[in-house]
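Slide 14.
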Amino acid sequence: MESNQPSRLTAIALAFMAVIWVSPFSWLILNAFNPLSTGQLEIPRVVGLDNFALAVSGNAGRQFLNSMLIAAGTATLSVIVGISAAYPLSRLKIPGRNAFLWTLVLLRMLPAAGVLVPLYFTAQRTGLLNQLGVIIALTILNLPFTLLLLKNFFDTVPIELEEAAYVEGASLFQIVTRIVLPMSRAGIAVVWFFSFTGAWNEFLLPLIFARVQDAFPMSVGLYAAFGQQGAINYGFLTAFSIIYAAPAVGVYFLLRRNMNTGFAGVGVKG
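Slide 15: predicted structure.
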């Protein structure tokens, strides 16, 4: 009879992989809570929150707020613009609609650096070399993904429900806000999450558009913190990294219920 127990070689391989995965996180946590951190993987002799206090004060605290403003602003604007454009695309028989959708697919594949120059000069001419310019530029880059995903979710909402509401006297605004959007909340949650995390992790656009240290987000601040004042403060960097990762994880757990359906690509009919 064949045994279901893993072999010794399999157990060693799994343990080796576990060590590879756990070591960076262990190093991060041990150094973040060690006020006397030297960058070594060791048990701290003193445990404290000094590094976290340093990572949320002064420029670091301002960078956290800048990141929240850029990420939340980009995600919200992407959803609003995406809904406004995706619903007509889903319901109206617009000539050339399929060609337009295929164009969106091709645009989705373009790297952000490929359109950086026209975006920069457009922002320069319109006076948007600031955080608002970063939000608008990231929203433009998000639009192909936003439109395609939201259109697919709007397609799953039964048109009969909208027709029944129209017969009962509902306006288009009431139909969209009370029927279509609640039934598409999984897709909206996925779009908001990916737009938020994409903007949160964006480095190049804020670096070029914001231009002053007071307007930089955490992604740029983390880069600038390396070698600041001729030395690396490992305790500050590890605490800063944990704080930097926390909002994206928190947003995922807040939206998890809707996003599980959204990731599966399941709408109303699915």
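Speaker note: The radius of gyration is 24 Å.
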